Amino acid sequence: MKPDGKVVLLGDMNVGKTSLLHRYMERRFQGTVSTVGGAFFLKQWGPHHISLWDTAGREQFHGLGSMYCRGAAAVILTYDVTNLQSIVELEDRFLALTDTANADCIFAVVGNKVDLTDSCALLPEAEDERPSEKPASGCVPTKVKRQVHADDAIALYKKILKYRMLDEKDVPAAEKMCFETSAKTGYMVDHLFETVFDMVVPTILEQKAEGPSQIVDLNNCKTAKNTQRSCCR
Ligand SMILES: Nc1nc2c(ncn2[C@@H]2O[C@H](COP(=O)(O)OP(=O)(O)OP(=O)(O)O)[C@@H](O)[C@H]2O)c(=O)[nH]1
Ligand SMILES: [Mg+2]
């Protein structure tokens, strides 16, 4: 089956891309191994099927990134809030990989592992999930020092728009597209993916109205053979 739209997660190794996808798709946080090549999940969103691509952050797989981004309707640029270099890498190394994405590609900037720095992220966003830790009262900093702040993510979002030659008034506001998440507790993970999916739907509808799309046919995609996991939901 051909997916109707494609969403790609990019970011340095160890920031938690695979963990975010597992949390969203499988509703749990489990041990991960560093991704080799890439892997995809298929998510049904209303009548549409969206492919969610996990990519490898390791330098040796860098060349594959632009291939995974080809025809992407949305790219989720992920960093680790406890690691300044991980957001620097998004601009230096990963942004250029999105040249192959759709012209109207949606961008989200995501700071993961916020459970390490902020006590409020120890609470999952959804009622049906319980954190493994006891939430502290109020939202106070934890012992781990935060290296990236919300303003840094907003500044990156604005640089992305400049790079893509997009006008701020034609795209979703930076405040709406910068997220902080915890794959460990589930904090804001559903909110992230669901916001992105909702934004991708108009693109899907447009493509469907235009006729045959340029979306990659997963059945013919050789890279899928190398995946850690390729599951359909
Ligand atoms: N505390 C905490 N740890 C996390 C979180 N997300 C991921 N981790 C841990 O960070 C490490 C890396 O997670 P992965 O999901 O494998 O990272 P990745 O971005 O997929 O890495 P590559 O596949 O190498 O590109 C693992 O030890 C995870 O358990 C989080 O939200 N909080
Ligand atoms: Mg991974």
UniProtKB/TrEMBL annotation:
SMART domains in UniProt: RAB, RAS, RHO
Gene encoding the protein: RAB20
Family affiliation: Belongs to the small GTPase superfamily. Rab family.
Name of the protein described by the UniProt record: Ras-related protein Rab-20
PANTHER family: DRAB5-RELATED
Entries under InterPro entries matching the protein: P-loop_NTPase, Rab20, Small_GTP-bd, Small_GTPase
Native source species: Gekko japonicus
This protein's UniProt keywords: GTP-binding, Nucleotide-binding
